[in-house]
Amino acid sequence: MAALDDIKFLKETAELNEKSLNLFRQEFDKIGLRYTKSVGNFLMLILPDESTAIQFNNECLERGLILRHTGSFGVPNGVRINSGTMDETEFAISVIKEVFESIKVAV
Question: What pTM does this model have?
C-alpha cells in the first residue's frame, strides 16, 4: 500500500516500464520477431506454432532467461516477456536474438 502512495516511485516505475518495452519493440522489429501491442508491463511474442514457442521458451531458459509459454492461457504460439531494469532488458534482448536466429530456419 505504501508503494501506491509513493508518487515518485510510481512515476519512476512507469517510466522504466515504458523504456524497457520500447527497447524490446525496437529490437524485435529489427529482427522480425512479432509481438502483441501492450499497455501493461509485458509483451507477448508470437511464434509460428506451439512447438516453436515451446522450443523458443526452453532455449531462452537454458541461457538464463525466464519467459512464460502462454499455452495455458489459450495462446499456444505465444511467449510472454516482462519488462525489467535496463540491464535485464539488454540481457533479455541478447538472449532472444541469439535464440531467434538459431531457430529462424523453422520460423
Answer: 0.89
Domain ranges of the chain: 2-102
Mean pLDDT value across residues 32-50: 95
Report the CATH number of the 2-102 domain. 3.90.1150.10
What DSSP line would sit under the chain, residue for residue? Answer: -HHHH-HHHHHHHHHHHHHHHHHHHHHHHHHT-EE---SSSEEEEE-SSHHHHHHHHHHHHHTT---EE-GGGT-TTEEEEE---HHHHHHHHHHHHHHHHHTTTT-
- pLDDT of 106 higher than 80: no
